[in-house]
Amino acid sequence: MLWPVTTDRTSTGHLAIGGVSLPALADEFGTPLYVYDAETIRQQCARYQSAFAERYPRTRVVYAGKAYLATWLLEMIADAGLGLDVVSGGELVLAARAGFPLDRVVFHGNNKTEDELRLALSLGVGEIVIDNLYEVDLLERLVSGSTAGVDVLIRVNPGIDAHTHDYRKTGIVDSKFGLLIGTGDAARAVERVLRIPGLRLQGYHAHVGSQIFETEPFAAAVDVLFDFAAEMRSRFAYSPRQISPGGGYGIQYEQEDPDPHLDAYARAVGEAATRGAVRHGFDAPLLTVEPGRSIVGPAGVALYRVGAIKDIPGVRRYVCVDGGMADNIRPALYGARYEAELANRASGSRAAVTIAGKYCESGDVLIRDTVMSEPHSGDVLAVPATGAYCLAMSSNYNLALRPPVLVLDRGDARLVQRRERYEDLLARDVVPVRAPVE
Asked: From 235, 238, 246, 376, which residue has the greatest number of CB atoms within 10 Å?
C-alpha cells in the first residue's frame, strides 16, 4: 500500500483523499502541506489487532509515538484501543494533556533523565522499559520509600543484524540500545531489579530495527527473549509475565518495495511466542508489539508547489519544490527513497527528474532520479508514505516554518495543526528586540 486507502483521481484529473481534492487544499492552506487519511489509520490499527488476535490472542498493540505524535492522533489511537510508546518527557506531557490513558503508556529511551523518570512516576505511566544499569540506579533512588512503585521491563540487546539501513539497526551488538546478554549486563539488571522494592519486573523487551520486511529477525528476537527468560528462571526463580519483540515492520515507499504482509508478520511472531512458551514450559506471557511507521506512514501525503526547474543537458533536470529537508530529513539522513505524482492534473507525458528542496544544502534532495508525470512550475506535487518520521523530525532549518496538518475523513478536511508563523520562531528569544532605527 503506497497511497492511502481512500486515494482516487477525480474526473478533472485531481488527486483526492478521503473524498477531498488535494489541489484545492493546497490552494486554501498553502504548501508545504501534510494530509492524513483517517480511514487508513483506522484500518491499520484494526488490522494489527485482528492479525495478532488470530495468531496469539494474548497480544497488546502499542503505537510507537516517535513515528509521529499529535493530539488528534492520540485521540484516534486511544479510541482504537491501542497503547502508546513514548521516548521523551515531551511525548509524555503531550499524552497526558491529550487525555490519553496513562496506564496504557510505555516509557522507552536509552538515556532517560532523572527529571523524565520522575515525571513518568508522578503521572503514573503503565510501564518503564529499563535500557541500562544507570537507569536501575536512578529508579532505585526515585522509588525509595514510595508506596506506589512501577511496572518495568528490561530491554535486552538480542545481537541480531536485521536487513535495513545501518542507522535503523537497533538490535546489533554494537548499538547504544539495550543491555547485552553476552556481557552479563542483562542478567545483572534482572538480579538488581528483582531486589528493589517498588520495581515490579514484568518481563523482557527487545528491538531489532525498523523498516524491516523479513519476518525472521522478529521471530529470532522472540526466541532470544525466551531463551534468556529460561536462564533467568533457573538463576533467580522468575518467570516473565510479558515478552516484547518491539516493532519495526516496514512499509512501501516505492512501488518496487515489497508489499508488507501483516498476517505473515503476526504469524511469525505469534508462532515464535507460542513455541518459546511451550519449549521452556512457561505459561503464555503477554506479547507486546509496537508498530509506529506501519500505522501512520501509509496514511500521510506531503504536498509541495513546484517552483524553479533547472535543466543541465545530459546530466539532470532539477525540479525544485517549496519544502525539503526541513519537513522531511529522511532522504538526506539515510538515503530514504520516495515516489511522487502530480496532484493537480493527470499527464501522459513522463520525464526523468530529481525533486530538490529549497534549503541551502546540496544534500537537500527529496527524490533523486525518478520518472514521473512531467512537472511544470506551479504544479502541486504529492509524495505518498510521508506519514511517519517526516513531521516527527522536522526542523526550523533556515528558519523555515513547519507545515500545517489536515486530517481527511469522508469528505471532510479538518485542520489539526496550523502552519507556524514568524512570531512562533521568535517566541523563545528572550533578548529584547531593539526598536527600528528611523
From this structure: 246
